[in-house]
Write a structure and sequence with these properties.
Length: 259
């Protein structure tokens, strides 16, 4: 009889543990504490690895890097993050089918996208700016922007009236900055920045060569001469070290929070 009682007690204890675990799974996440961009400062902030967003996250609070946007949103949803920072277009795509999260109405940061060029290379800067003027005039920039941000069916066609020149231009770019620059499933760079850089090089009649850099190192790559140009993230303080081209697009960083 004692043996039966012991088994019964063990089953009761196991049942309590199971019920407790199930109850834990159903716990509500903590309430949202980030209701405006001012509330972001000092928080635990998620951002994708290597993206411009992680630079902002680490400047404003405790940044946590993620390889996957889905993992980041899941951690935000259950309360392991206070908020997350992403480029606007990517954020809208990511949370389109995600419940329990939303994007704050006010953007965290809006900035122009520009080429970074070594200050010593004034000739290249003039050529890049002239190419951007030409690409704006012939509708290429407008077409590329409509492709990546309006879902239009635009295909860039290289000009056939540019005389090729020997040499090449090295572009430093981050692969973690969708839709501006990322890797496709074949390992090739793709995105708005890549197509703009290719179009600029086509206007100059030179080959484009791409090097993979973290967003933090883009300006450094140009400053030290490892690359001729950089695209993707040029913080204000970077202008002390490199020259900046005319703008070819704009970017918006937004904050994702729990509902």
């Amino acid at each position: 009889m004692a043996r039966v009682a012991g088994k019964t007690a063990a089953l009761v204890v196991a049942g309590i543990i199971l019920l407790s675990a199930l109850a834990g799974c159903g716990e509500r996440p903590p309430p949202n504490i980030v209701n405006s961009t001012d509330d972001v400062v000092g928080r635990v902030i998620g951002a994708l690895y290597g993206s411009p967003s992680i630079v902002l996250a680490e400047e404003m609070g405790t940044g946590r890097e993620y390889q996957s946007g889905e993992d980041m949103i899941n951690d935000l949803r259950v309360g392991l993050l206070d908020c997350a920072i992403m480029e606007s277009t990517s954020a809208q795509e990511l949370i389109e089918d995600s419940s329990g999260v939303r994007i704050l109405d006010d953007p965290l940061l809006e900035y122009d996208m520009r080429f970074a060029v070594a200050k010593e290379n004034a000739a290249l800067l003039r050529e890049v700016n002239a190419a951007l003027v030409a690409l704006s005039g012939n509708g290429t920039l407008r077409g590329l922007l409509s492709k990546y941000f309006a879902g239009r069916n635009y295909t860039y066609v290289p000009p056939d009236n540019i005389e090729p020149h020997p040499g090449y231009i090295v572009l430093a770019v981050s692969p973690e900055n969708h839709p501006y620059s990322s890797m496709d499933w074949e390992g090739n760079f793709t995105g708005l920045d890549i197509e703009v850089a290719q179009a600029v090089c086509d206007q100059l009649g030179v080959e484009l060569r791409i090097q993979d850099y973290n967003s933090r190192d883009l300006v450094t790559a140009v400053w030290f001469g490892w690359a001729d140009l950089a695209l993707g993230w040029v913080p204000i303080e970077g202008e002390d070290n490199v020259a900046i081209s005319e703008a070819y697009a704009s970017s918006t960083q937004v904050v994702i929070v729990r509902r």
